[in-house]
Amino acid sequence: MIKLENVYKSFDHLEVLKNINLTVQKGEVVCIIGPSGSGKSTLLRSLNQLERITSGSVYIDNELVDERSNNKDISKISSKKISEVCSELGMVFQRFNLFPHMTVLENVMLSPMKIKKLSKQESMERALKLLHKVGLTDKKDEYPSKLSGGQQQRVAIARALAMEPKIMLFDEPTSALDPELVCEVLDVMKGLAKEGMTMLVVTHEMGFAREVADRVIFMDNGEILETDRPENIFNNPGHMRTKEFLSRIL
Amino acid sequence: MDERMVRVIGILIDSFFPLLKAGLMFTVPLTIISFFLGMIVAFTVAIIRVSNFKPLLAIVKFYVWIIRGTPLLVQLFIIFYGLPSIGLTLDAFVSAVIGFTLSVGAYGSETIRAAILSVPKGQWEAAHALGLSKSQTLLYIIIPQAIKVAIPPMANSFISLVKDTSLAAAITFTELFQVAQQITARTYEPLWLYIEAGSIYLIFCSVLTILQSRLEIKFGKSGD
Ligand SMILES: Nc1ncnc2c1ncn2[C@@H]1O[C@H](COP(=O)(O)OP(=O)(O)OP(=O)(O)O)[C@@H](O)[C@H]1O
Ligand SMILES: [Mg+2]
């Protein structure tokens, strides 16, 4: 579903991703953990090209979407093709990023209507179904500012699902939430995992990683230091840095 | 009451309707037309600048630089008195509309650009992640939010424009202030006539200020 080969990314002279190789299979839930600044967000964002990698190749759903060498695009893939493939990736942000001038329902309906060109009726049906799924049918006509953080994040998940993505990317979806609101978002994510959604989740919720992840990746300083089943990572980390990191946050 | 006072009051009453009429028939239309056209220019320039549209970027930057860096009165003189010498003669009204439109366009483009840039980066990112194109993002996500930010400063520049149109008197356009000058030339009562003209501007601007606060309440309500 996702494949990264020899991916490097620098901001000016700061190397943020170093030789990243990663494959995610269909239906897999992979959690990425690691200290702040280790490049977790950048890795996620280079999948849907919110960041452009410096070199390496990115495949989504077996299609090459970006191939670069020395910051030069050597794949020459049309931007239309790129947005097509990227629309198979749904993304959920730490700060929700809902559209504040639209109601909850309009937020979720927007992309089916404008990108998939569904009719208003079809888009609304799809949006209502998704809002039901995240338990927010009764909030459909509210503006985002009237919702709690947990509710906003669930709307953001519904909005991402409205494009019927094959893969969902989560970048610390619960980090901006009050502790008592974390659960409601994690529950929605667990539900998605159970349905077989392919998920790549950057998180500090070790309980979630332990319970839901098929694999956990530990990143440090722009590198993937290890990747393993959660029980191995948590109980028996193979790397000193992993052990240090886990002992600091658990 | 002394005789002079009676004379002045007579002049003020006689001139009130000609002044108000000049205001309503010339100042107001000049303001509205220039502002409307100016907003179109401002929007276009702002979009070119934020979308970094290379072919036109240098041209619009040059335009904003010239307009903001030279006095409006000088611009009006160049258009009205200067252009005829290269064979382009425009009447006073058209010259004034062009001058004010260019001015509103240049200053307005900066306001709109700032409003667009004030929309958080996360909005662009969320739209990109959903698969919206750059122009769809501008149209559905960024501009609706930017307009809210831009309305108060744009309303202020509309009110300023009402007053700035008095500069058109200098290129022979018979708007409110020009009429006041004509009556003064006949009656030799500059103090009272210019105060009267100023009062009519004050009435116009006060009405607009009331409308402005209504507008801001209306646009401040929905959303955040
Ligand atoms: N647009 C940018 N310009 C310059 N440097 C950047 C930019 N974005 C990220 N960085 C730097 O890249 C490094 C990795 O950032 P990234 O956000 O990927 O880390 P992270 O693992 O997600 O951290 P966190 O847990 O704090 O979210 C950091 O040192 C950060 O300062
Ligand atoms: Mg991050």
Regarding quaternary structure, what we see is heterodimer
Largest sheet strand order of chain A: 7-8-9-3-10-11
Taking all Cα atoms into account, the compactness measure Rg of chain A is 18 Å
Structural class by secondary-structure content of chain A: alpha/beta
Contiguous low-pLDDT stretches of chain A (5 residues minimum) are none
Give me the strand/helix succession of chain A: EEEHEEEHEHHHEHEHEEHH
Gyration radius of chain B (Cα, Å) is 22 Å
Largest sheet of chain B: none
Q: Which ions and ligands are bound to the chains?
A: adenosine-5'-triphosphate, magnesium ion
Number of strands of chain A: 11
Structure at a glance:
The complex is a heterodimer of chains A (250) and B (224). Chain A is α/β, with parallel strands linked by helices and 250 residues long.
Question: Overview of this structure, please?
Answer:
The complex is a heterodimer of chains A (250) and B (224). By secondary structure, chain A is of the alpha/beta class. Chain A has helices at 40-47, 79-86, 104-114, 120-133, 149-161, 179-194, 206-212, 230-235, 240-249; strands at 2-11, 14-24, 29-33, 55-60, 63-69, 72-73, 89-92, 167-171, 198-202, 215-220, 223-228. Chain A is globular, with a radius of gyration of 18 Å. Chain B is an all-alpha fold and 224 residues long. In chain B, 83% of the residues lie in helices and 0% in strands. Chain B is built from eight helices and no strands. The A-B interface holds A 48-50, 83-84, 86-87, 89-91, 93, 95, 97-102, 110-111, 114-115, 143-145, 156, 159-160, 163 and B 120, 122-123, 125-126, 128-133, 136, 140-141, 144-145, 148, 222-224. Adenosine-5'-triphosphate binds at residues 11, 14, 16, 34, 36-42 of chain A.
